[in-house]
Amino acid sequence: GAQNPFASSPPTDCFISQDEREFVGINGLQWTTRQEMLNIYKNKIKCEEEGLYSIRTEPQFAIGQRAFLVQTPNGNILWDCISFFDQNTIDSLKQLGGIDAIAISHPHFFGSMSDWSHEFGDVPIYIHE
């Protein structure tokens, strides 16, 4: 679920998939657009326990990542960013108090972190060293 700059044709390679540990399916790299995804995918937000919500794309996209909204007295943190989100996702998270910061655990979640931040007022993004 990595994003790429706008172009008239799909890229020939993916910087994440260049890692020898990364799985690339038998049909090679697959490309789509956010607009195409809006017609197929939806996000499911599930309360895992008080103050903790999982966010997962259905049907499964990429390697099936999920993100978490962690509600705290000092603000809400989005732990990781799944690639796909739509207006329903934004509205649902705003009803849960919105997002005050984003924390990213590893590169599989880099793809759309800037878009998530922008949608929630350019909240800060924290990436570990």
TrEMBL record:
It comes from the Eukaryota. SUPFAM superfamilies: Metallo-hydrolase/oxidoreductase. InterPro entries: RibonucZ/Hydroxyglut_hydro. This is Metallo-beta-lactamase domain-containing protein. It comes from Rotaria magnacalcarata.
